[in-house]
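Dear support,

I submitted the protein below through the web form. The confirmation email said the job was done, but the results page showed an empty box. After a refresh the structure appeared. I'm attaching both so you can tell me whether what I see now is the final result or a partial one.
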Amino acid sequence: MDYRPKYPTGLRLLSKSIDGVLFLGGTAIVSLVFVNAFLRGAAGFDLAWSLEITAFLLLWTTFLGCAAAIARGAHMRVTEIVDNLFSLVMRRRLVLFIDLVVAALLISLIYTGFSISSHTWAQKTTVLYWPVGLLYASMPVGMACTLLFHAFNIAIDLRTPPTDADLSSNTEAQI
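What the results page shows now:
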């Protein structure tokens, strides 16, 4: 279920901003890798700085992509066993329990990512001399955005509980 239409305006704007960053980041990754591979093959050299920028973009697009997927309700669920063993009421309780476990995991990742980022901030990358902590800051920032979307998703689900079709893996809305 795509939660974005039910978000308040500010959260929808954040979601669209993340989508724009992901588009630009993905385009830059593909372009940089293609140009660097072409130069390595055709001209016999590569652009050392492009490897660092590509690594930076890959990390940031990965963690921001997690937030974008949560906003869309697009993370995969395997529910065949639960669908066949539990009633709708029990499935709703199980979904809430899993959502709370995911929230706890996200909080843990934010804390750990902040710790890693702050401990590596003084180190510099070899070519561009960017702080290494800036690379690792992608984890707490991406997970904070993910947690924000996830918390709103939980609130939306509590206000309007998901139907049997929403909880089932056999719906096309989850594909």
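Response: this is the final, complete result; the empty box was a page-load delay. Residues 4-75+82-174 form one domain.
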